[in-house]
Structure formats: structure tokens, C-alpha cells
């Protein structure tokens, strides 16, 4: 396909969303609450489904119809029509999320995509799709001119920016307005005011919203910034004035760390947001991250949709969020909501926005941090506790319609969690990973949006709240004893077979659950994570499951430093593979290598025997991913007929025997066994190296078996034959001082030259992958013998970048 040509999807057979039974409207305020999200059950790609044929959707069980939306009762009273067609200036799961609501409302969608996203899910779901440039976002998703051109060519009347990319770009909003295209977001003036962390704090102070002590001025002289840091007192937080998502943010504990941290934060901010300016604030040592979802219309209405807790983070980025925030008193919730609405009104805000606060666990005081002038990644947890479709609200407000609910009518029912599924390696400092999703099996969703909050969940408003007016009451009135069906929801932008590249954020999907209370929701989250299975890239699924079961997290003892504080509990030593997993892996190899014949033949009875008539036996050597561990062996001996096996497993510490085990492959990835008398279906996925990988890269030539046994994933390595490894020599004995790329990356900076003396821990190379900077440091003190990269170069994972020859200090 040529670049910049429309990719019409009308010819593709995309399934329509089925509708359930029509629910009668009530006369209460809940008439306005969104039931539209229950139009259908979300579709889930199976592990074996073809990527070119999206699976059919399953009708919901008696849920409300798509027409029964939040704004249904406004139709007869001057309701303004929605847009006929919108363009989504984004990719991944948020683009798919917007498309789902647009389809529900009968709004046509236009997708834009870079060349590497040509076959992405959002491209295939949209009604039209246009290529807007090469893979780097600066040449595609950040190109305002190209997006406006596609709007004109496609006839899109409005643009939904999603989050990230151009979602908080005031110039983009202004350019759209000049072209007569509606920006589904706040006015440019609000983006400018709240997009600058320094200006926003000044506005908040004037509006009576408490702010964290710090320096928010425009002078960016490094010496002045360091002097201000000393005045504030360490630890301090350096934060990019523009942008968000943890980019351009560094925690500094001492004056000696400040210069390097400042330079790194400014460099990351400049690349991510086009502006290197930073501010310096006091770093609160035991903070929580609590944010309030606000929504405002063009008529002056503004409400709080309650708060979320997003405290558990890594790399200053959220990985798990929940709503409502645990442990807040009704009075504190009301105060937070009131301050958030005041913040939005102070800048004449319109649309969906999030006012973020730092909550000090020690003093129980909260401070304004920043306002995100867009829809947040974690918006689904708010949808779950309110029963509202926030994207639908965005479209209606952008069309000029008023908010459907006043403050006293917004429900708060149950508890919700969102877990972000990332392509990353938690045990390697959460470094992002890239590659193909070779296998993907997810928990079965029950809803595509949020469950409906019906009238029996809402208690009758008291007379005091009824008289308090639209903006005066921030106390949700709910019936906590009402029955509520647990919900599992999946927000994903990639299917099996998709490529997770290095150019964009490594988030694969979001897993969202909702229950009657925090305990039930957390139990639902753990169960759903146990069913989430990915092969092809490293993910944080196992880590998230450990986190969801951590005792401190269960007790809601959350703070932004939760992961380092509980590091040893969250990252226990990797256990030795279980005997059950070893036995299943060996059986899988035996059955796979000796498939049943497709037609009767004289040889069909010989599959488990030698020509001499002996019973078939095989010893399989397996290795854990920890290459320093001793190899393990499994002896498999078949009974006549080949369907019963005796298995003996040997690990470094013990031996176990399983007798007369029946086994067969139900599918290429499913092993059915009667291990220890219990019938077990185990998913096992083989990850073979590409044919083009030479034997010299010996780690890549080994086959990996991913065994999903019970709630755990065990990865075992089938070592390559000795003769194959001998072709490439021993490349595992790399020099002690060799620095290799931990992931596919772009080289941002090379700080050393050949012959230069370096100290252990000295920064040597700075890499960037998936919008995140990583500094590689010299592992030993010595002399640089070789530099194998240059600034701006794209390097593959495992490539040797710098070789440092260790030199002992004779002094």
C-alpha cells in the first residue's frame, strides 16, 4: 500500500455489536446513567485464531441496548446531534477504545497509522485508515499537518486525541479550531495553563488549592536550580514543566546527584514534549498518588466523578490503579472533589480531565500536583464505579450538549482495579521488551464497557443534598448492600501475532475488574491475571499477580514507594522448576516429536518402540532460564501403545517418579495428562529461534518451552545440540567488562572513547527505547578497549556496545 492512501475497511467483514434485551427507563436520576456499555460481551482473540479474521462477538445476557445511553433523555429537549465521523489521532488500545464507543453511537471512525502499524488492530477496526508516515512518532503521530490533511480528505468533523502524542498539545487544538475541526478535549487556553506545571501551580494557589513547596519559576540556569534544591531541602523531585507519564522526572537525594539528574530529565523532556524546562519540588517521602476525575461542559457545568488511587508505580509510571481510593473518609473525599472542581473552573475547563494530588501518608494532607487535560489511561476504573461511558461523555460535550448528571446524581458503587499489561522485564529494572506476540490467551471478559449501575444501587437523596445544588454536594449516596455482579473487562490494542516495537509505549493491554468491595475486586484481579498468558515478549503479568497477592497491598498500605519498599517480597528468588512442570514439558516434547500417523500403516505401532522390540525410552535435558543453574533431566519411558508413560524427573535437589501417566496433545499448545491421578490440561508453547539466527549467537539457538501450569508460568530451555553450538564457538564467555544492549534501542549518547579510563559505575552509554531512557554504566574500573555504537544508531538486543578491560588499581 502506498503511503498517504486511504485504507477502506468497508469491504472487510467486521462483526456488529449485538444488543441484549431492552431495559425500561426509570423516573429517577439513574435514567441518565450509562447502560450502553453492556451492549455486548467483549471479543477475545483465542490463541489459535487467525489475525485476518476477527472473532465474532457474543451477545450479552439480557443487558441494555446500545441505544440506551447516558444522554437518551436529552433527545427530546434540544439535544445537539453527534458528529457523523471522527478521526482518532492515536494508536493501540485507546484508539480501539474510542472506536468501540463510536460504533455504539453510530459514529464513523477514521484511523491514522505509521508504516509499522499498517496491520494494527485499530486500523482494522476503524471504518477508514490512512498512513501518515514512518515509524518514529515525530514523523507520523506527532505530525499535525498530516492529521489535519487526513481530516479534510476523509471528511472527519472532529478529532479524538486519546492520550499521549498530541492529546495535550495546545497548538494542535488551535490549528484544528482554525480549520473548523472540533477538538474533543479542552480549549487550548486550558491546555496551556494546566500543561505548564509551574503556571498551573500559581493558578491553583490563587484558587485556594494547596500546592507542594518548590521552585516553579522560568529561570532554568542549572546553578540556580541546584541552589533552589538546596533551599527546599533534599530529597527533591525534578519534573518536566510540560508533559506527563513519568517522563522528564527524576528523584534526587543529594547535591552530588543533581547535575546529572537535571541533564537527563531535561534531555528526556525535550525529546518527549519539545520543551526542556523543569521545576523543582520537595519530594514527599511517603506519598500517595490520588487523582480526581472531573468533567465539564461548555455551559459552565462541572462535576467530580470521584477519585482514583494510582500510587503503585515503577519508573514514575503507574502500573495498577483502583477506584475509589482506599481509606479516605467521606469528608476527605468531598474536600478532594471540591478542590478538583475548583481547579477545573479556574481555567474554564471543558471535557474530561484529571486533577492529580500528592497525599502525604504521614500528615494526611494533600497537595495539587498537576492536571492532565485529557482522558487518562486509567479512566476505566472510574467508569466501573459509576456505570458511565466517559468517551461517550466526551463526544456529547464536544458536540455542545450539557452534562447528563449533576453532582448529587453521580453514583459510586463497588470497587475497581486496573492492571496495565506491559512488554517489559520486571526483574531487569522493568526494562521494556519488544518482539512478536507469538501466543496470547486472555481471561474471558464479561463486559465491553462498565456494568450498569441500576436504581437499586442508589439510595434516595437526603433533603439536605437535594437542596444543595448541582455543585455543592460531593457525597455519593449509594446502597452498598445491593447485589452487584463481578465484572472482568479487557482493553487491548494488540492481538496474537502483533509486533511490539521499540518506537512506542510498551503497554499491551489493560485488565479491569469490578466487585462489590475491594476484597472481591482484588480476588477477581488475581484470578484474571492467572488466566493471562503471553509468549513472545517478556511481560509484567507474573509480577502483577505477585503484587495483587502481597499482604501490604491487600491491606491497602499503598504509597508511591511501594515497590522498592517491598522489593524482597515482590521479587523473591526464582524457585526451582517443579517436578510437575518438568514432567509435562518432557511429555510435550515426546508427543510432539512422535506425532500420531495420519493414516494406518505398518509403522504406526512402532512410534514408541525400537526396531529391536524394546520399549521406547528417552532422556530429555532441560535448563532453567537462569543459565548458572544445573541442568535437569527427565527420563520418559512408554508402555506398549504409547499413551501411558513412566516419568522420572531429576533436579539439582530431588528426584520424583510419576507412574502410568496418560498423555496426549489436545492441540498444538495443549497437553492433557493424568498426572498423579488428576486430569490436567496444561498450556505449553514452544518458542523456537528464527531460522536465520546463526549458531554463533548460542543463547538464541535454544528452543524455549513456556509451561503454564496452574497459576504459574515456567520457562524451560531445550539446549541446542552440542554439534550445533560447536559451529559458532563459545560466545557466552564474554569479557567481564562488556556492555550489551539490554533491548532494541536508539543510542542517545556515547560518553566514552577508545583508550579512555573509566571507573566502575560511570555512565558510558545512554539508550532510549519505548520513550524511556536507560543509562548503561561501566561494570568494572578499567580502560575502554572498543566502542561498538554511535549516537543516533539503532542497536539490536544483545549487541556489544562498549568493552571495558578491567584494570586493577595497583595503589
From TrEMBL:
User: Where does the source fall among the domains of life?
Assistant: Eukaryota
In alphabetical order, the GO MF annotations are:
ATP binding; metal ion binding; methylcrotonoyl-CoA carboxylase activity
Q: Which residues form the ATP-grasp domain?
A: 201-399
Give coiled-coil spans as residue ranges: none
Tell me which InterPro entries the record gives. ATP-grasp (IPR011761), ATP_grasp_subdomain_1 (IPR013815), BC-like_N (IPR005481), Biotin_carboxylase_complex (IPR050856), Biotin_carboxylation_dom (IPR011764), Biotin_COase_C (IPR005482), Biotin_lipoyl (IPR000089), CPAse_ATP-bd (IPR005479)
Cite the PROSITE patterns for this sequence: ATP_GRASP, BC, BIOTINYL_LIPOYL, CPSASE_2
Every copy of the Biotin carboxylation domain together lies at 82-568
Alphabetically sorted, this entry's keywords are:
ATP-binding, Biotin, Ligase, Nucleotide-binding
Note whether Zinc-finger occurs among the keywords: no
Q: Name one Pfam family in it.
A: CPSase_L_D2
Q: Which cofactor does it need?
A: biotin
A single GO cellular-component term on record: mitochondrion
The chain positions of domain Lipoyl-binding read 729-805
Q: What is the name attached to this protein's record?
A: 3-methylcrotonyl-CoA carboxylase
